[in-house]
Design goal:
Blueprint lengths: L2 E4 L9 H14 L4 E4 L5 H7 L3 H12 L12 H6 L4
Parallel strand pairs: 1-2
Helix pairs in contact: 1-3
């Protein structure tokens, strides 16, 4: 079994070249391997952060079908444990 983990998913907005790479990667893994996305962004914001349009549609299509979503809530552990107030 192969698992791939994307930490800080969509922290930086991907450019066109990287969106093409993501589409190929998600297509290759679709239905055959597990992928974990760790992010502070809500799922409803992913499409826009992926640049919208056809690439974002295709990438999201391969991610959301058959996905299991786990929400960790709104707490920011870095702020809680580190004493960061802002």
């Amino acid at each position: 079994m192969q698992i791939q983990i994307h930490d800080e998913w969509l922290l930086d907005r991907p450019d066109e070249l990287f969106r093409g790479f993501l589409l190929e990667l998600m297509e290759a893994r679709y239905g055959t391997a597990s992928t974990v996305f760790c992010t502070l962004f809500r799922q409803k914001d992913w499409h826009a952060r992926l640049g919208g349009g056809v690439h974002a549609d295709a990438i999201m299509d391969r991610i959301v079908h058959g996905a299991a979503w786990v929400s960790m809530g709104e707490m920011n552990m870095r702020r809680k444990l580190g004493g960061d107030s802002g």
